[in-house]
Design a protein that fits this description.
Largest sheet: 6 strands, mixed
Strand order of the largest sheet: 19-15-16-17-18-32
Helix content: 25-40%
Number of helices: 22
Low-confidence stretches: 21-40, 112-124, 808-815, 830-840
Distance between the termini: 83 Å
Strand content: 15-25%
Length: about 850
């Protein structure tokens, strides 16, 4: 399931360089030669020591002549550079080079050999920390000579200035203190960079009394854990001017552990340290952060054979932690004692190779169905030796310690999609769908494959609707990155709760203590500002109901607007005008539906209901964001809301285009005279499910969607089934559909029956426009009734009589209503103008005949 892309292979990228003889120190570009098989230099003598913020890798090499060299490899340009060579064999436990490659800090340890050569090297009682001038190679300064190990790390200020006048170095001791050395430099003879006053290098203490420390090179942060009375996680932020400040403190309830010796994370590789001893004794803990303001603290006890594995992920930005207990009964013996915690931004990969792989959703961790839990073959890391010691580095990088090879980790597209398409459990299928949409996309090919899968599996599953999940998760992924605040208010799933248990995994949830921000307000910028805002608003979000926007907010208001539009169509209210303006903004943002290609025959129509729903969704979503995210500002919220609804319409269009290509349908407008093909039936089935999913969420559809679906329904369904679909509201009679139907079909008995069934189901406003297209007595009767009604309205206004008075006089008269009607028609015949668009005169004699026929029917006489 995980893809490991090699970024460093010591044998291929570095070995040929170090085998070259007489390589002058400090040279830049080198040519790569092929290693000699007979060379006494082995891979065991070539080791990775550290990785710097810029991605360059420091390595040390013990040569055949007894010397030890330190070099640097740049994977971006695939070049090596020799930094320094000791004239004897030394044990380099830690090393770091400053940004300008003018200073090298090295921590050396003594080694003792056991009586037998099979015993590994053990650490000595002395550690020597040196500061070396390497541009050019010049003086060497002793910083520390102590009995405990020291880790060294240069700071890399986040600045574009290529200053060579100062460097800042961290010394991290196993005696639980961190010091920062401020090294002032001078430039001599135009190129020589030397320490200005090597005898007195100023320093200050950064941290003390810690039992665990982690360095985040990319963000220049130091995390450390103090354990005086209770475990407290603290973070020191280093700024571009190399001023440091403790910004963050979090009390933690960690499991009991001796924490001996002190465990270091991301401080390079100490090859002379017994890592197995550390793993057996110390708590495996790592802090993972992202620029979206999330912080996850992952920790686990050492894995013991034949015991369940337990690990905890504390979601600091969400205010709670989840503990996962994995049953290991019947599982193979784990090859390692530490879990791998790998940050994949949206997900945290928790891996015990060969046993299990969990992809924990770090952004939406509330429901277990949005995380993926795998076991068996999917957990194998094919590029790594099962028993090899592996370090998880920042930026999703793995380092295989013994071979020195480095890999960038990502979720493998093909494996995830295959798992999605073949899963049989709803929970796994739902988690894989979310992972594919949130992590793999925006790769268009991935989204296309998912649409094809939906088309082939369009029936709803027991616990979720895959079309609704596809629409909401795709919209969430397309829009939330424009502002991380949207993460908490936009819908990302139609699932509100999930109670299904995960086989072999038990999950418990606990609340976290509230963190404390110690930094000054002016320093809480970027990541820290987002994290603080997440934490401060967490209580507000928990107290406010319906914080996450629900599309059902629109349904009640939508029904009211439809009724209001029917009654005030000629003169819309101001609110309706605003709704229409919202719709115009969305439709002007949406793609032009590829009119040049005409791939999908969408009717270019008003589609009043969808236009009202589009504008209403914009209005309600804008109102929701203004209530909860007012800090974004009205102008930005307006743009986000319009873009969100436009992306929805674009997503539906993409589904339709995929359907048209998949089933090879014609791009011409479908006609009514032919029966639908199996391909059209398949498209109709999928579009019906899309319509059902959209209605369930009260989401608008592109104008023309309902017309196209109704055309396919008429072609594919039997007439009686088609009419039932109309009566149950599955299909909708739109004006373009009805007008084309009456124009295209003749008045055969079968077509006449269909037209009559359609006319009976038309709303009155649409029927008045349709009657004139149908040359039939029923249509003529409707025209006559409407015409007479308009005459009586005009007569009322002219004579000033009320309807009640006129009706009373009719019933008291000795004459039939037909007599009065005939007289009235002759009196106003010269003013008789058809109210329809053609503006043709209406024959009074024709209306008289129609009225006579209607009168006979109303009185119960047979028409003779």
């Amino acid at each position: 399931m995980l893809h490991l892309r090699p970024t460093l292979d010591l044998r291929r990228d570095v070995m040929p360089h170090v085998l070259r003889k007489d390589e002058p120190p400090g040279t830049g570009e080198v040519s790569v030669c092929i290693a000699c098989p007979e060379s006494p230099l082995s891979a065991a003598a070539l080791r990775v020591v550290n990785t710097e913020r810029d991605g360059r890798v420091l390595y040390c090499c013990q040569g055949a002549s007894g010397n030890t060299s330190i070099g640097r490899y740049d994977p971006r340009i695939q070049q090596n550079k020799l930094l320094y060579t000791f004239d004897k064999e030394v044990c380099v436990s830690s090393a770091s080079v400053n940004r300008e490659a003018t200073l090298l800090a090295v921590s050396l340890v003594q080694k003792l050999r056991r009586e037998t050569h099979r015993e590994p090297l053990r650490a000595g009682s002395k550690c020597l920390t040196l500061l070396i001038e390497i541009h050019p190679i010049n003086n060497t300064k002793v910083l520390k000579a102590v009995d405990c190990r020291i880790r060294v790390q240069f700071l890399y200020p986040d600045t574009d200035k290529n200053s060579v006048h100062e460097s800042h170095l961290l010394l991290i001791s196993e005696d639980s203190y961190v010091e920062q050395f401020h090294i002032n430099l001078v430039q001599e003879e135009g190129y020589r960079v030397v320490i200005q006053n090597p005898a007195r290098i100023p320093k200050d203490k950064v941290a003390e009394d810690f039992s665990w420390a982690q360095w985040d090179a990319h963000t220049q942060r130091l995390f450390y854990l103090t354990c005086r009375e209770k475990s407290v996680l603290k973070c020191v932020q280093f700024y571009p001017d190399c001023i440091c400040e403790t910004l963050f403190e979090l009390p933690m309830d960690l499991p009991a552990s001796p924490f001996a010796p002190v465990r270091f994370v991301n401080f390079g590789c100490d090859h002379y340290k017994d890592e197995e001893l550390v793993a057996d004794e110390a708590l495996n803990l790592v802090v993972l952060t992202s620029n979206t303001g999330s912080m996850c603290i992952c920790y686990s006890k050492p894995v013991q054979a034949d015991e369940d594995v337990t690990y905890t992920v504390a979601f600091v930005h969400r205010g709670y932690s989840k503990t996962f207990t994995v049953a290991m009964e019947g599982a193979p013996r784990p090859p390692r004692t530490d879990l791998l915690f790998i940050s994949l931004d949206y997900y945290i990969a928790v891996c015990l190779p060969g046993c299990f792989l969990h992809l924990i959703n770090s952004r939406q961790p509330d429901l277990a169905c949005h995380s993926l839990f795998l076991s068996g073959e999917q957990t194998r890391l094919c590029c790594l030796c099962p028993s090899s010691s592996v370090l998880s580095l920042p930026e999703a990088v793995l380092l295989e310690v013994h071979s020195g090879n480095m890999f960038i980790v990502s979720i493998k597209n093909s494996s995830l999609l295959h798992f999605l398409f073949t899963s049989t459990e709803d929970g796994q299928r739902l988690a894989a769908l979310h992972c594919a949409l949130a992590y793999l996309t925006p790769e268009s090919e991935v989204e296309l494959q998912i649409i094809h899968w939906i088309c082939d599996n369009v029936m709803s599953y027991d616990r979720f609707d895959q079309i609704q999940e596809f629409m909401l998760t795709s919209l969430y992924r397309r829009i939330w990155q424009q502002s991380v605040s949207l993460d908490k208010v936009l819908p990302y799933s139609s699932i509100s709760h999930w109670e299904e248990e995960i086989p072999g995994v038990k999950i418990t949830t606990e609340l976290l203590s509230q963190p404390v921000f110690r930094g000054k307000t002016r320093h809480l910028k970027g990541y820290w500002e987002e994290l603080q805002w997440n934490i401060e608003t967490m209580k507000y979000f928990e107290a406010v109901p319906n914080l996450r926007y629900r599309t059902t907010f629109v349904s009640e208001e939508w029904n009211k607007l439809l009724a209001e539009r029917g009654s005030e169509e000629k003169k819309p209210s101001n609110y309706l005008r605003n709704i229409q303006e919202n719709t115009k903004k969305v439709l002007s943002t949406v793609d032009t539906w590829h009119l040049d290609k005409k791939l999908v025959p969408l009717f270019q129509e008003e589609d009043h209901q969808q236009r009202v729903l589009i504008g209403l969704m914009v209005d309600k979503l804008r109102e929701h964001l203004n209530r909860h995210l007012h800090r974004l500002g009205k102008k930005r919220i307006d743009g986000l809301v319009v873009n969100y609804v436009a992306q929805l319409l674009e997503l539906v269009r993409r589904i339709l285009e995929t359907l048209w290509v998949k089933f090879n349908l014609r791009s011409q407008l479908l006609c009514f005279k032919q029966q639908g093909s199996p391909a059209e039936w398949a498209v109709f089935h999928v579009m019906s499910r899309v319509l059902e999913a959209a209605k369930g969420l009260c989401l608008p559809l592109p104008p023309g969607f309902n017309s196209l679906l109704t055309v396919l329904g008429l072609r594919c369904l039997p007439t009686h089934t088609f009419l039932q679909y109309l009566d149950h509201g599955i299909l909708q009679l739109t004006e373009p559909f009805v007008m084309q139907l009456f124009k295209e079909l003749d008045n055969s008995d079968q077509n006449e029956e269909l037209k009559f069934s359609i006319v009976k189901r038309l709303p009155e406003s649409m029927g008045q426009k349709i009657y004139q297209l149908w040359d039939h007595p029923i249509s003529s009767a409707c025209i006559a009734r409407n015409y007479v009604r308009s005459l009586f309205v005009k007569l009322e206004k002219k004579q000033g009589t009320t309807r009640a008075e006129r009706d009373r006089s009719f019933f008291q008269s000795e004459f039939m209503p037909l007599s009065y009607l005939t007289k009235t028609l002759y009196d106003v015949e010269d003013q008789a103008v058809n109210p329809f668009k053609e503006q043709e005169n209406v024959d009074a004699k024709f209306v008289e005949e129609i009225a006579l026929k209607q009168t006979f029917l109303m009185l119960g006489f047979e028409d003779k």
